[in-house]
Amino acid sequence: MNHHEIRELLHAYADDELDLVNVREIEQHLRACDECRRIEEQIRALRHALNNDAPAYRAPARLRRNIRAALRREAKATERNFSPWFVFATGAAFALILFAFVFFQTNRASRGNAIVDQVVDNHVRSLLATHLVDVASSDQHTVKPWFDGKVDFAPDVHDFAMSGFPLFGGRLDYLDGKTVVALVYQRNKHPINVFIMPATGSSDSSPALSNRRGYNLFHWTRRGMEYWAISNLNEAELRQFIALLAR
Amino acid sequence: MFRLTESPRLSEFERKVLPHLDAAYNLARFLMRNEQDAEDVVQEAALRAFRFFDDFRGENSRAWFLRIVRNTSFTVLKKNRPDEMNIAFDEELHGGQTPPMDAGVALDRAQDRQSVRAAIEQLPPEFREAITLRELEEASYKEIADIAGVPIGTVMSRLARARRQLQLILSQTK
To answer: How many CA atoms within 13 Å lie on the side-chain side of A234?
Structure first.
């Protein structure tokens, strides 16, 4: 290295940034070159002055406090935010719940409609065939025991002849995929079919009227049993009958 | 999901980065040349560092944080005081390249802290940065290069020129 190259490296030398080979070469040169030695001394004097007078600033306590407070706010604000995965999962869960709800509602509605149709069909069929009843009796004590062993539940059977709705008999029928009890009452030649089956839910519901193909239907749930009553009887009289039955 | 308790990310940040707050303030203070701007810059840099803390890969946390402080400082300087950025140190005005023969002797006569600070503040921003990091924070050339985002060769030449200018200023303030 010549004098100029050495001069360029004097700062790195004073800063201990050079490797040993360069350090040796520079030290050799310094012993011979007055100018470089003077520059090197000036560098060291400057460094000495800068370190001695400790001109470095310290962070004010106020700044430190402010930063800590700001960081805490920032951490709260940002880390309450949900991760993309959580957002995705929540969205998916909501979508699934919504879908299930809609599906269930649609399903329930269509099941409701399907049952109403079945009830009407059963009623019409019972009138067409000579199969209105399996057990023809106005005696509830004859009709009720007849169902023993034929269905796995015991329906309430009452005769309402005193109120103008005599019991005509009972039969087995098929509704909503299950064997059900059908009780037949008569009101001035108007047959009334009452279908009874165990309820799927546990909550009671009061009789609700619907109409289908000219028939009046009432549907209700009571003490774990589901009832469908259907007739071509007028609504007022059928309601009277339902009041007796659902008492 | 919810972090109701103290954030672990925050505690790690406080443990790794906040110990360098003095160095950060010192650098910002010399770059901005006033208290209020320095505090603003460091506060903003700390928040930015916290936001980008996930990018920090455990190298040198001081150099990482100081780089953010430095970049924040220069952004503010360029935006608010663009004229300052372009002032090159007028070496002719300060009596040529070479300091006087007695420059070292003059320095021995103990500068007070204020005049040393004032002298550093007269340097151009990049030189203030090099001197502050090297002389006051004792950063290596490599660290300074990382923080300033320049090659080591540039760090060397900036330091050499910054020192020459400092010597001139200090020997003239006598």
So the answer is: 3
